[in-house]
Amino acid sequence: MNNCLLCRDEIVHELTPQEIFTGKKIKQDFLCLRCEAEFHQIKTLHCPTCFRQQDKSKQCPDCKYWQALGYHNFKHQAIFSYNLAMHDYFKRYKRYGDYVLRLVFQTLSTTSITPMATTFYLCTNAEKSLATTTI
Ligand SMILES: [Zn+2]
Ligand SMILES: [Zn+2]
């Protein structure tokens, strides 16, 4: 039995059929169901360029705006919408260095993100210099 990394409540693990038949725990739980429900996974309909959740799979107004300014070669991939729960998570993880929180999305981020070759723009010193790199 372990506790939720965010609220410290006890986590009750629900067995999957695979776990029942193999007798092995397949997935480690790091969040309780209540905390897990606070994070909203992006559904299939989203902006193809930035993954913003919307009701159609066409490019969103922000991406059109940036492309109108001449930024054509950008792409962003996301798994979750940025909401208050995600804001609080990153505040604890990055600002306060709660390093154990890396475990919360570790498995999901390695299985859901697909590698992509693209150009990244690194803006430094208030847009005075613009560096690009391609991976
Ligand atoms: Zn919790
Ligand atoms: Zn977009």
Summing up helix and strand content along with how strands pair, one would put the structural category as alpha+beta
Q: What is the residue-averaged pLDDT?
A: 84
Q: What overall form do the CA principal axes indicate? A: elongated
Order of helices and strands: HHHHHEE
Give the low-pLDDT segments: 131-135
Protein name: ComF family protein
Write the topology of this structure.
Layout: H1 17-22, H2 33-36, H3 61-68, H4 84-95, H5 102-112, E1 119-124, E2 129-134
Antiparallel strand pairs: 1-2
Give a quick summary of the entry.
The chain is α+β, with helices and mostly antiparallel strands and 135 residues long. The protein is 30% helix and 9% strand. Strands 1-2 form a two-stranded antiparallel sheet.
Q: Your description of this structure?
A:
This is ComF family protein. The chain has a two-stranded antiparallel sheet with strand order 1-2. The protein has one domain (38-134). It is built from 5 helices and 2 strands; from the N terminus they run αααααββ. With 135 residues, the chain is of the alpha+beta class. The protein has helices at 17-22, 33-36, 61-68, 84-95, 102-112; strands spanning 119-124, 129-134. Helices cover 30% and strands 9% of the residues. A hairpin with a 4-residue loop joins strand 1 and strand 2. The structure holds zinc ion (2 copies). The site of one zinc ion has 8 residues, from helix 2.
